[in-house]
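Moderator note: this is an archived Q&A kept for reference. The question asked for a predicted structure of one protein chain; the sequence and the answer are reproduced below.
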Amino acid sequence: MNGLVLLGVTLVAGTLLGLVLRRRDGRWRAARTKEARVDFGEPLGERATLVQFSTAFCAPCRATRRVLGEVAGMVPGVRHIEIDAESRLDLVRTFDVLRTPTTLILDSSGNIVKKASGLPRKADVIAALGVAVLPNVDTTSQHPDGK
């Protein structure tokens, strides 16, 4: 009987944890580190830069690369830079990257405006990018349904 109770508690806890992680996946939040005065190995964009940390075997990283590349192609002066997290551990530690993909949005001065872990939606990237490109834009809710 104790085994069934333990199994039930484990299943409930695992389900709740999964729901919390799914809800946070790809959500933009204010970054703790404000300045990104580091060398990414490529020049930054004129208006903003989308910095993606990824790894070779990360499936969501490929989809994130496609989304960020499309957004960078749509907005003039925005550049997408992809960083291999395995080869740039110094940057991983500096920006507290805990999982891949992790995306940073930098303004034209190189300051971090937003940070997201997981696969972001295209509309959310565009909304978060508005903070870097147009500093007076309020994007407290990136989801149209208010989530």
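Archived answer notes: Residues 2-24 form the longest helix (23 residues).
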